[in-house]
Amino acid sequence: MSAYYSLLIIGLCLLMGYAGQISLGHAGFFAMGGYISAALTTFNLLPFSHSALVRLLGSIGFLTRRQDLYGGEILNVHPAVACVIAVVFTGFIAYLIGIPVLKLKGHYLAMATLGFGIIIYRVVL
Fold first, then answer.
1. I want to staple 114 with a disulfide (CB 3.0 to 4.6 A). Which of 8, 23, 24, 104 is the partner?
2. Is 61 left (phi over 0), alpha (psi -120 to 50) or beta?
3. Quick check: is 87 in a domain?
4. What is the C-alpha to C-alpha distance for residues 30 and 117, in angstroms, rounded to an integer?
């Protein structure tokens, strides 16, 4: 868990400490990655086990089978794979948002990243 928090702190240190910019959107990206990872590891793929994509992911070793509290079998994405998928997806979204936002400076950058954090908060919760 400390590795996840250190990623957040290092990102903030680079942007705020060395570049002198204020970003309030880091928490939004952090929440997006956590939400995607949690959704991938908790969604049961067993009803879709006959599809080609699920069989391919299972043969590669990206899926894990386990039992739920009631003894039923569930099929989920492995947590390490879910973390990598969450990082890639969140990085892609951050890149798309960063293209127009990085042209801003100072207070305008802070307001744009604050707006993104509020959007993520309203969509996720």
1. 24
2. left
3. yes
4. 10
Residue 95: domain span: 2-42+79-124
Query: Is residue 63 assigned to a domain?
Result: no
- Other C-beta atoms lying within 10 Å of the C-beta of residue 104: 14
What stretches of the chain show up as alpha helix (H) in DSSP?
2-12, 26-42, 52-60, 79-101, 107-124
- For residue 103, tell me if it sits in a domain: yes
Query: How many Å from the N-terminal Cα to the C-terminal Cα in the chain?
Result: 22
Q: Position of tokens 């060395």?
A: 18
Task: Count structural domains, the chain.
Answer: 1
Identify whether 114 is part of a domain: yes
**pTM of the prediction?**
0.78
**DSSP at 66:** E
pLDDT at 26: 79
Q: CA 68, CA 2: separation in Å to the nearest integer? A: 28
Q: 64-79 pLDDT, tens per residue? A: 888 888 888 888 889 9
